[in-house]
Design a protein that fits this description.
Elements (H helix, E strand, L loop, with lengths): L3 H16 L5 H17 L4 H16 L8 H17 L12 E7 L5 H14 L4 E5 L6 H13 L2 E3 L7 H12 L4 E5 L8 H14 L3 E7 L6 H12 L3 E5 L7 H10 L4 E5 L7 E3 L2 H9 L1 H14 L2 H12 L5 H14 L2 H7 L17 H12 L3 H5 L6 H11 L3 H19 E2 L2 E2 L2 H10 L5
Helix pairs in contact: 1-2, 1-12, 2-3, 3-4, 4-11, 5-6, 9-10, 13-14, 13-20, 14-16, 16-18
The structure holds guanosine-5'-diphosphate and magnesium ion (MG).
Length: 446
């Protein structure tokens, strides 16, 4: 996949959102920072990165729409901003037979290679395609095109000894009329200088191409903006063929820069071979880049685990200052779906430093069932105030439920541990505010 590095950094950031239990400013800040790092590494213009960061922060403040969780909202915001950055609309070449496409671009940007790619692409789709070499500056250029033509079995017109590209065109013009698609290779230079500009203008005037495609190497990153702008003003390009996406970490910058100029990126070159071509559908591309499919699955999964019902109850218990054995049971059940509390705590900003007892709320399912039986043999008072369970009461409960007193004791130990943990940590009494914060956090609301 192209843009591997950018893709994996962005995916990692979004996975953080999907896995987070709470979307708060701290998480948003963290995500924005991850995003900035990924985009800057991909050579996206600093100013653009800054604007995106601000917009994400602003949009994340809004209340999510009905039925949408805060996490989904944040992922959507990031997705929207990136689509906006790399190009939102899908543009396609519309081929009207006979269709002439002239390729322009800097020297070595991939014009000749990309023409062969496009020739193969359209001939596979049933078009009668030909190529014509008007790069008369380098003696090896027409031969390169011809060799490619032989390889992909596409008819190629060249004139080895002719120095004037227009003359080459005129020589073959009539013969070209019987093709559906005529791909025209032109010369490039190290920069768009006056002479090259003049040549392109002259060719454009005489050939009247339906499209002028700029071949642009993605490894120039944000410098693409200047190149696209230059070619656009001098000859009015209608689209971009972005090459060398396979070998650069800067492609994000190139795509973003190209998007600013409003010349649509139509194709991507992803290797040296003629078949290494992809059409560019920005939204699909970005979904793939971000692993949106994976993310959706991840969101679904976490949603299942975070059942609100149980957690609401717990919150209520905390608010009322009550925590019963029933709450313990429900909470352990919820934890069984979510995984160890220590893992969940890692995801709560500011909570990861708190030392959690290793086995807090970690009870095997079989054992939990037996605890449940024991609870059924308890009175309401015992359930609500397990402190009142004396050894004679314990014996009664054990007999009634066929659960060993050892296991009932273990349950009571767990109960005390949870209560202690949420009430007092490290012998220090937690402030009411801190307690509320944790209770609120344990709402597991998304
Ligand atoms: P031109 O001077 O603009 O016609 O550029 P060429 O088509 O001759 O390409 C210059 C070099 O870039 C050649 O070695 C190509 O094989 C290479 N190239 C072109 N497109 C791609 C691409 O998408 N990926 C990779 N890896 N190399 C490419
Ligand atoms: Mg060439």
């Amino acid at each position: 996949m192209v843009l591997d590095k950018l893709g994996s950094s962005l995916k990692a950031a979004l996975k953080k959102v999907a896995a987070a239990i709470f979307v708060d400013t701290r998480l948003i800040d963290e995500i924005v920072k991850d995003l900035q790092k990924a985009l800057l590494e991909s050579d996206v213009d600093v100013e653009l990165v800054f604007q995106i960061s601000e917009r994400i922060r602003e949009k994340a403040k809004k209340k999510p729409a009905e039925g949408i969780s805060k996490r989904e909202q944040l992922i959507q915001i990031v997705y929207d901003e990136l689509t906006e950055l790399l190009g939102k609309e899908k543009k396609e070449l519309v081929i009207k037979k006979p269709h002439k496409i002239m390729f322009v671009g800097l020297y070595g940007s991939g014009k000749t290679t990309s023409i062969a790619k496009l020739a193969l692409y359209y001939s596979k789709r049933g078009y009668k395609v030909c190529m014509i070499g008007l790069d008369t500056h380098r003696p090896a250029a027409p031969e390169q095109l011809q060799q490619l033509g032989e390889k992909i079995k596409v008819q190629t017109f060249i004139s080895k000894n002719e120095r004037d590209p227009l003359k080459v065109w005129q020589k073959y013009e009539k013969q070209l009329e019987r093709f559906d698609l005529i791909l025209i290779d032109t010369a490039g230079r190290h920069s768009l200088d006056a002479e090259l500009e003049k040549e392109i203008r002259e060719l454009k005037k005489n050939i009247k191409p339906n499209d002028i495609i700029l071949s642009l190497s993605a490894d120039i990153g944000q410098a693409a903006k200047k190149v696209v702008h230059g070619f656009h003003t001098s000859c009015g390009i209608t689209g971009i063929f972005l090459t060398r996406l396979d070998g650069t970490a800067k492609a994000g910058g190139a795509l973003a820069a190209a998007n600013i100029t409003k010349a649509p990126v139509l194709f991507l070159g992803t290797g040296e071979k003629p078949q290494d071509i992809e059409t560019f559908d920005s939204t699909a591309f970005i979904s793939r880049l971000l692993g949106m499919g994976d993310l959706r699955a991840l969101l679904e999964k976490t949603k299942l685990a975070l059942e609100e019902k149980e957690t609401k109850k717990l919150e209520k218990s905390f608010e009322e200052g009550k925590f019963t054995l029933i709450d313990l049971h429900d909470q352990i059940k919820a934890m069984q779906k979510m995984g160890p509390l220590s893992k969940i705590a890692e995801l709560i900003p500011g909570f990861s430093q708190v030392k959690l007892p290793k086995d807090l709320l970690q009870v095997q399912e079989g054992k939990l069932k037996r605890w449940h039986h024991a609870m059924e043999s308890m009175t309401k008072k015992e359930l609500e105030n397990p402190e009142t369970i004396t050894s004679s009461r314990m014996a009664r409960i054990s007999k009634g439920s066929a659960v060993s007193s050892g296991e009932i004791r273990e349950m009571l130990r767990q109960y005390k541990m949870v209560k202690k943990f949420f009430g007092i940590t490290k012998g220090k009494k937690m402030s009411q505010k801190a307690l509320q914060r944790i209770a609120k956090k344990f709402k597991f609301k998304m």
